Amino acid sequence: MAATNLGSTGADDPARGHKPPHAESAPFAPGAVVAGATPPAQSGPEHVEVPVAYDAILLAGFGGPEGQDDVIPFLRNVTRGRGIPDERLEEVAHHYRHFGGVSPINQHNRELKAALEAELARRGVDLPVLWGNRNWDPYLNDAVREAGERGFTKLIAIATSAYSSYSSCRQYREDYADALADTGLGDVIEIDKVRQFFDHPGFVTPFVEGLRDALAKLDAEHEGLDRTTEVEVLFATHSIPTADAAKSGPAERGFGEGGAYAAQHRAVAEVVMREAGASDVPWQLVYQSRSGPPTQPWLEPDVNDAIAELPAAGRKAVVIVPLGFVSDHMEVMWDLDEEAMETAGEHGLTAVRVATPGTHPAYVSGLVDLVLERVNGTPTAERPHVTDLGPWYDTCRPGCCENVRLGFRPALAGIAP
């Protein structure tokens, strides 16, 4: 492991503790088509089958406020560049204020970091875990700065998001570029990322177990309930603009309406239903947490609209599976545990919400497996995946997951743009 100090700035450096500005460029090695990458990934192979001696893992989170005074500054970070006034941000802020101004996401990432460290130690893997967030302290640029101070030059990043879209993949890659530009370490530190893990068994297993347990709970508490006609499973994920969804994943794959984002969710949902022994139970993919103007089309149906229609179809119970989330984000706690459950009650439905992966042993172990794929240069044919869509790419393909409104900003871990 590298031991050279690459420019410590000191714990009291005023440069710390802020969301960095957008990078104007990304660092390319001579002849490389992938910015900021380690040598085996610089030419943009779909899967890197060459071992890489990484120095550390970069755990990249979304971030969240940890007190009432943090809420509006946090939301300003999330919506930066969109010109949204504080009065409108306050409309969203009440979700956080309902929980004391504290999002659970930072604590979940602390727990995930500790769980990853324990699993790495159990396996005898000497890779420190650095944690940084996109939108709140600790920020990604602070984590990159720490890497520089500790002499780490090769990082393998895990984004706490499993699917392909601008907000769940490319925006993280842009933030890696922002962090390198902000710290001035782009000529020293290289950052790769693990593949999107929507269909890795470590991510899928907790949902299979959760759905199986939820259905068993309904069977036990409601004698005579007919799963095939009176129960429906709703797989919930974050809605995104339909224009962005269409741009998710490589265009040449031809995923159609909803792009790779919707296709990946549907494929995983089918696996979860089958593996949970629920192939005869009705299900659908639903969306939540839309935030754009009413004139802008977003993926539908909304989870609450879907719930409202279930009684007319003869349903008496609903199981909500938060398939798009790795932990209990605010969108899970508010949009599902508060609003969706309230909607279910208003329509006389029994509702059960399945747990997110969190620190489930299979999920934690699976993330370490994903890191070791790159450490060991695991052949593509040996990489586990439970759908026909995977294993997903190590280096994102050209034009993947464009933000239609913003275009292409500098980003790492993918072929430009």
Description:
The chain is an alpha/beta fold. It has 2 domains: 39-64 and 103-196 and 361-382, 3-Layer(aba) Sandwich (Rossmann fold), CATH 3.40.50.1400; 201-353, 3-Layer(aba) Sandwich (Rossmann fold), CATH 3.40.50. The protein has helices spanning 71-78, 86-98, 105-123, 140-149, 166-183, 201-221, 227-230, 242-246, 259-275, 303-309, 330-346, 361-376, and strands at residues 56-61, 129-133, 154-159, 190-193, 231-238, 283-288, 317-321, 350-353. α1 (71-78) packs across α2, α6 packs antiparallel against α12 and α10 (303-309) packs parallel to α11. It is globular and about 65 Å long. Mean pLDDT is 94; it is low at 1-11.
Supply database-style keywords:
single chain; 417 residues; alpha/beta; Rossmann fold; 2 domains; 4-stranded parallel beta sheet; 12 helices; globular; disordered N terminus
Quantity of strands, as a count: 8
Strand content: 5-15%
Radius of gyration: 21 Å
Span between termini = 32 Å
User: What count of structural domains?
Assistant: 2
Largest sheet: 4 strands, parallel
Order of helices and strands: EHHHEHEHEHHEHHEHEHEH
